[in-house]
Amino acid sequence: MKRIHACSVGALPEGEALRLDTEPTIALFHVGGEYYAINDRCSHGNASMSEGYIEDDATVECPLHSASFCLKTGKALCMPATEALQTYQVTVLEGAVFIDFTGGRLMSDLKDDVVLITGGGSGLGLALVARFIEEGARVATLERSAEKVSLLQQQFGEQVVVVQGDVTSFADNQRAVAMALSRFGRLDCFIGNAGIWDHNASLLATPAEQLESALTSCLPLTSKAICWAPKPVLRH
C-alpha cells in the first residue's frame, strides 16, 4: 500500500469531486467537510462517478443509469447497481489530502482470454466489452441492432468480433460461437448479458394490461437467452 497525494485542501470545494488518474481510477469527494474516495468507474455501467450527482447525505448518483452509492462504505444503494465500489482511506495532513492506495489492475488475469458477451451494443454490455478489451482480453459479442453493430465496429475495429443476431435464436447463438472460435481458436468465458430492463417500474403502479404485455415479451426472451446462448458455448 502506498499513500498518494490527491490535492491540497483548498483545491477541492465543498460538494465537488475530483478524478485521479490512478489505475484503477479513483474519485475523491468533498462532502460535509469530509473527504471520501471510491473507485471512479460505476460497478454497473461505463461511467465516471466523479461526474455524478453528489448529495448532502454523502451519497453519489451515477450520471449514466442513476445507480446510487454510499461514499462512506461504497455500498450500492439502488438498482441497477448491485455491486459495491471499493473505498479508500483518506488522510488530511498539513493542508494536503492523501489517499492510501494499492495500485494494480483489477482484472489483469484476463489478458489473452477469449470472452463472448451477448447484448454488447449498449449499457452494461458495452461497458463489459470496453473493459475486457482494456484488460487485454479478446472479445466477441452478439448484438441484435444493426446500428449498434456498426457503432461497435467503428469504436473497437479489429479488437472485437461483432455478430449481428438475436439471443432468442439458437442458430444465431451457434453462429456467434463459431465466429469467435474461428477468429480466436477457443472460448474461455461467456457472459449472458442481453435482456430487458424494467427501468425500476413499480409492480403496484403498473396497470395489469401493461404488466401482461411486458411479461409476454420479457419471459420468452429471458428464458431463451439463458438456454440458447450457453448450449453451444458448453461444447467448447
TrEMBL record:
InterPro entries: NAD(P)-bd_dom_sf, Rieske_2Fe-2S, Rieske_2Fe-2S_sf, Ring-hydroxylating_fd, SDR_fam. GO terms for molecular function: 2 iron, 2 sulfur cluster binding; metal ion binding; oxidoreductase activity. CDD domains: Rieske_RO_ferredoxin. Keywords: 2Fe-2S, Iron, Iron-sulfur, Metal-binding, Oxidoreductase. Pfam families: adh_short, Rieske. Residues 4-99 form the Rieske domain. PANTHER family: 5-KETO-D-GLUCONATE 5-REDUCTASE, ALCOHOL DEHYDROGENASE, PUTATIVE (AFU_ORTHOLOGUE AFUA_3G03445)-RELATED. Belongs to the short-chain dehydrogenases/reductases (SDR) family. NCBIfam families: 3PPDioc_HcaC, PRK09965.1. This is Digoxigenin ferredoxin subunit. It comes from Serratia fonticola. The lineage of its organism: Bacteria, Pseudomonadati, Pseudomonadota, Gammaproteobacteria, Enterobacterales.
